[in-house]
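From the shared-data thread, chain only:
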Amino acid sequence: MKRHGVRCLLMGGQACVFYGAAEFSRDVDFVLLAEPDNLKRLQSALDELKAEIIAIPPFDESFLNSGLAVHFRCNASGVEGLRIDIMTVMRGVDPFPMLWERRTTFAIDETEVDLLSLPDLVKAKKTQRSKDWPMLQRLIEAHWFQHRFAPTPERIDFWLQECRTPDILMELAKLFPAQAASIQSTRPLLDAALQNDLAAIEEGLEQERHAEVLADRAYWEPLREQLNRIRRK
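Structure, as tokens:
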């Protein structure tokens, strides 16, 4: 991807590994800019990988822009069987140019790898899939333990808005009560954290998860129907 100049960001399980939340993943997920020149660069990279379309939909800009993912399987020597999933639009996640501006870059063996920023990755993980929620919790826990002794206003807001570990939420509310109180209107369970009410926090976390699951199902309902129409055609 880097060699062919594809403007894309790593996401999914591989990105979680970079952020310190290990997850076994058999595929590589990218969000990318769906414009003709960038898609041509992507096709060049896929050609080098001898990647073939698997499943549906076909590799077409219109399907990417509608919110569907396009799936490939590699056949080149050294990457046989590797699956690559490409997306452009995700529920609750900003358009690609904004994601690109906020990206995180890691270096591996003198190669830079561009990832979704952690807050954007967390948003992308709020799906109806049950496996995403433990990973989402671990992502934020890892960030908290890495940076707890170097809090910034941005980090404090992120932890208070997204943390899903009751004990850490109560500690955050104790350490940063003013910030917690200022944003509890957007996250009501912070009131329970300020009151050190474990049961209410756990109930609030489940309510948040349930609301996101329902929203994700509603978002994907027309997309699944679109996939069914493609299959029938």
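The chain has two domains: 8-117, 132-217.
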